Records
---
Amino acid sequence: MFRRKSIITILAAGMVLSSGTVYAQTISAPNAQSDTAFDNKIIKKISADNMYSTIALLSEQPREAGTEGEVRAVKYIEGQFKSLGFETKVIPFPIYDYRTNHVWVKIGGLNIEGAEPRAFSGSVTGNVTAPLLNVGKARLGEVPDEVAGKIALVERGDITFIEKVQNVLDKGAVGVLMYNNSSNGNAFGQAAEGQNIPSVAITREQGLALVEKLKSGSVTATLDVDIEKIEKTSYVVEAKLKPSKNKDTGQIVTVGAHHDSVHGGPGANDDASGVSAVLELARIFAKAPIDTEVRFLTFGSEERGLVGSSFYASQLPKDDVDRMVAHFQMDMIGGRDAGADNPAGGLIMYTIDGQKNLVTDLGAAAGVRTMGVAIPYGQLGRSDHQPFHELGIPSALFIHSPVEPWYHQPTDTIDKISKEKLQQAAEIVGASVYQIARPETPALENSRVAAGIVDYDFEDRPVD
Ligand code: BES
Ligand code: ZN
């Protein structure tokens, strides 16, 4: 933690901190000039054509996590980092798919009439035959002891699925048969890890018929659920660019994007665009003088719920976390049709808590220098900046918002990519990262070369 605080203090000499503190020697023309000179070392080298070619290649096929498409992308990305001489690691992690082979419910030995029952998501495989007991909505304290050894017939509503399953499980039930509380079919239900009894959803009509049947005597039911858990592998690609040993602040800046796409989606903008900028900045930073480790990352399984970035965050040594001072996430930064008529092509920086931080301070200022616009900020998760924020690292998502109409569609293809948007976003992130990583950074205590500051605004902009 000490180190992270120290960089903020250093930068504070020439910046308005996100806390709002204004330091005496702040904006001055010489600062802006020297910033521009430093920017030029990076941004003059950025090639939108390079990024465009990367996107064209990556979007030739979908890159859904756990598929051959992801592996192909990972190999390409790894190859690029290696050819640049980075210390490169491909970090595998497991992801799980579930295939339902069958879900059978029998009443008195006969298949239940009507709609085909459905297993809860997260239900275990199991085959139980036992008396059925109506336990109402299975609220806490309302489940009778006599449910032990029986299958609980439960009505949906009032409390969560997981709570209901737990309440009957705690009393020794061997299965859950839950009926809907509306006439909306049977596509519902969730069981949690460790709730090891089969849990099945049926329609309201089917459930009420059973409630009636139970009034006139005992009913034996069978729940036969066969779900296959299929383990697959997804990956994070990590490439470290280390500063020279004799000029090392010990700090780390991370720059990330996700390489996976949704099922069947070429994901040109989401997020081959971000990956292309990660690779392009890696190429340029490889030759730039730095005193701070710059770590380039691409994540798999973002589209499954930030699984890759969460895994990556969870396996970081504490010492690394303490040294991480900023995370820049680029996700959807090339959409020709994104951003509507907003300034800066709609580029915006989203933070998890809706607060400014070091990343947004640097991004807004770099926006002024590179395109004359103080990039606004807003509040949004939905991408891999989240796990970094949760580790206490200043983080933001760079994206054009509102997003384009073909977000997550098979039509998210290379022809919708704008080289101009790619160039602008990469310049802003590249210039911002370089503000931290350039060797003159310690001189930021000396306001003569401190980063220029800008005012920038919060925007509550609809994103899709
Ligand atoms: N690139 C999107 C994030 C996004 C989309 C942000 C639209 C803002 C507007 C990302 O890949 C994504 O689709 N995220 C998921 C959430 C994630 C936790 C599975 C989403 O937004 O549905
Ligand atoms: Zn995305």
---
Amino acid sequence: MNIAVIGSGYVGLVTGVCLAHLGHRVICVDNNREKIKKLKQGKVPFYEPDLEDLLKKYLKTRYLAFSASIQEATKKSTVIFIAVGTPSKKNGEADLTYVENVSRQIALAMDSYKLIVEKSTVPAETGQRIKRTITMNLPGRFKRGSEVTLDFDVASNPEFLREGSAVDDFMHPDRVVIGVESKKAENLLREIYEPLKPHIVVTDIHSAELIKHASNSFLAAKISFINAIAQICDHVGADVLKVADGMGLDKRIGRRFLDAGIGYGGSCFPKDVDAFIRLSEKSGYHFNLLKEVRQVNEEQKNLFVRLIEDKLWIVKDKTLGVLGLAFKPNTDDMRNAPAVDIIHALQHEGARIKAYDPQAVPYARKILKKVTYCPNPYLLAKGCDCLLVLTEWEEFKKLDFKKIKRLMRHPILFDGRNVYHDRSLEELGFEYYGIGRGNIRK
Ligand code: UDX
Ligand code: UDX
């Protein structure tokens, strides 16, 4: 199948490269020419495991190409995925300017049947709006009065890719959701995903759009739920890890996404929860449950800062070492990373911040100023009054804490991700505080 993917960011690039791997001929497009130049050289502009290897492999073949021209990509393709950014407006609503702009350009370049598929997370009804935009902007030769003479379809095929494991998620999906209006569109999408032999859920376009919103909001709610439980655990002296394990064994609940911590971040959950609240409001429903999900998430960061302030007594002029900056492990992405708010709050109190992250430092330098970035965890620990774990990178599990203890001024560790749950640090003489591990009773 000849496929175009418009927008070569995290989602678009993973989609394009993986579709090439499935044997399709893919053109990935981006309006950032610098990005296209790098991609043509086989360089992925962000960190995502396995992606660069696949990119390099398929660049050498006829299956993968890059272009800055939507016109060229539209003409050469039957199916066009839209994966451009949908940032938040001030009121939380998704800004669909890029989606509209791209739809217009696709319409202007159309000369035969096309299936236009929304991949970006968009509010319900966007499918209809894309359809209208395309109809309005088709070249005059395809219009007879108000009638359109060129056949085309619009579909929704939301992504469920997690950063850090996006390639694996693409290759092994729990389900592929396709929202369509015609059998032709359904068959084309089925053909595209056929090699993965996935469980395909076929719906109308509105329902597919809502499946994406509802899934992300539900996962965010699950995280906020366990974070609320963690707060209670801290007060009653219970251990949230044991509570989560006990709950998770119930198959109706499941253990995944029940890890308490400093809250969810990233480019999706915060933005999608906001957008869903706005979308519901517009449709006349006040989604207060989701507002509380957002509130609990914000509170997690504040509570963590307050815990540090409480245990250190005076934060001003103390040196705090931060292990992990990215919003989750295996990515260099700092979008809405809890580390940003936490570090800003501590700096506001006069703390000196040192930080180490295996991948995110170049990104972090742009948004976190007055931070001393260290090349490894041991240089980070040197002279610190305490350490904070903000991202659960695998390498943090294997650190030599005997050495770290010797290097620190005071062996205190605030574990925002409950990485060290086996009490081994306490045995080494650390003062240890996790999330929901009975902190208040200590
Ligand atoms: C984006 C959306 O933000 C998200 O809601 C959706 O689910 C998937 O797509 P992501 O891939 O993480 O997420 O965004 P980003 O990495 O910013 O990539 C968007 C790309 O689109 C950028 O490379 C940008 O240069 C490109 N773009 C943007 C265009 O090619 N044309 C435009 O008009 C606008
Ligand atoms: C998410 C969705 O999982 C994916 O399906 C969607 O399409 C895009 O958004 P992503 O944001 O890449 O993916 O990462 P995810 O693994 O979902 O984690 C999001 C945030 O939640 C991270 O900050 C993570 O640390 C946090 N999290 C996750 C928790 O705090 N506890 C958990 O139990 C799980």
